[in-house]
Amino acid sequence: MAPIISVKDLTKTYENGFEALKGINLDIEEGEVLALLGPNGAGKTTLISIICGIANKSGGSVTVGGHDITRDFRKARDMIGLVPQEMAVEVFEKVIDTVKFSRGLFGKGKDPAHIERVLRDLTLWDKKDNRIRELSGGMKRRVMIAKALSHEPRVLFLDEPTAGVDVELRKEMWDVMRELKKSGVTIILTTHYIEEAEAMADRVGVISKGELLVVEETDSLMKSLGKKVLEIELDKPVDDVPPALAQKGVTLSPTGKLVYTYDTAAEQTGITDILADLKKAGLRLADLSTKQSSLEDIFVDLVAQQKAEEDAA
């Protein structure tokens, strides 16, 4: 089945020569949740803006549901719902009126049943006659999602949907996203919260300085690029790492534990040799523990690797 969004060799260069996007290639499958991670200025919002028709591309092509965003702009845009990072609501409007108005902007006929279903799914039905200024921050964010869903899009872009909300509201928003996915909506999520990507995304894309560094299934990414840290607690603390262990990359933590980082995908971890060298050095083991690197560790490593390659070039 063809991807619902296909991005080919997409570039964006501003008049001052700044390259915001450098040849992005990305296919997004229908019904998946894709998280885009990247530091500020990485190009996440620029990429979304181009797909949604808010910004013009410099080169390449983008299709949504088979519709080219330039030649078939209206058909492509009709398939997209966008929840921008900024709160864009008329605070004196009633909830139900602003959602109905958004549907009308896309030329859709009145459908009270659909509007009610959207508001109920987002637990906004009881607030339908409230003015938006009377709502909490989390509820206002839900209104933004309701507006984006009012015209029945197949794709929903969420640009930092939980920015500025507390942990409890963030988890409520995760529940909303899960329900949207169950209904078949494709979700593209940009976020600074690594745990959000780990909790929600089927796949993760890491973008930095306009380049898409990697796009992979979340679990697979953590297995293929993740590392494990082995912490060795001795029965007596040491001041220095024995030379044989230091040569193998063992370090000493501030708490006095020996620390060894190894690649989970390697054929041999080297742990057997480490333990043998411990014995040779006359050190007695008290405890062992391992810790898997998180998605945040992988993200930081990828961005650091990109910087190192640029510095070496």
How does this structure look, described?
By secondary structure, the protein is of the alpha/beta class. The chain has 2 domains: 5-222, P-loop containing nucleotide triphosphate hydrolases (Rossmann fold), CATH 3.40.50.300; 227-292, no CATH class. 35% of the residues lie in helices and 27% in strands. It is built from 11 helices and 14 strands. The strands form 3 sheets. It has a 6-stranded mixed beta sheet, with helices on both faces. A 4-stranded antiparallel beta sheet has the order 2-1-4-5. Strand 4 and strand 5 form a beta hairpin. Helix 3 (95-105) runs parallel beside helix 5. The protein is elongated, with a radius of gyration of 24 Å. The two termini are 40 Å apart. The mean pLDDT is 87.
